[in-house]
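# nightly structure sweep
# worker-07 picked up a monomer target from the shared queue
# config: single-sequence mode, recycle default, output format = structure tokens
# input follows
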Amino acid sequence: MKDDPKTFQKVISSRDVAFWKDVNDEMDSILSNNTWVLVDLPPGFKLIECKWVFKRKYNTDSSIQTFKAILVVNGFTKKKGIDYFYTYSLMVRIISIRVLFVLASIYKLYVHQINVKTTFLNEDLKEKMYMKQTKGFILPRNEKKICKSVKFLYGLKKAMKQWHEKFDKSIILNDFHHNSVDKCIYS
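# output follows
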């Protein structure tokens, strides 16, 4: 198995560049969700870096299934109590998942899984966060502008908590109810 590229430059100079189309898909998702606006950096604000993370996903026979690319904010530079306060998010208990699989097996039910590709891009960011434009996607005649984030991106410590709160409100508004034992199970 090959090592995954560590930089955008290595991806565009690799012989597999045509397969790394997820970079364009990721940017299309980010831009279509209006994740940021280009602005000048206001005085007193710190600029956060971002980076591309590249990962080959393999089938069980070791053949490559997909080439994944994701833009990640260096959220580790944010300080608790200054840039954010709460990060805790509810997680489903493993025993709950096991019970649901047992029930599905007993009653011969089908189990479906979904992956929300743009999970965090659906939640508005209330704090002010400024980020450098990402390599490979710097807009011509706007090279000196920076991205003012208006939506969450992967890497921000508070992203999962905010997303879960929005999901919880939405599903409750659609007449679902929390399970009395596990608040991450709805009926």
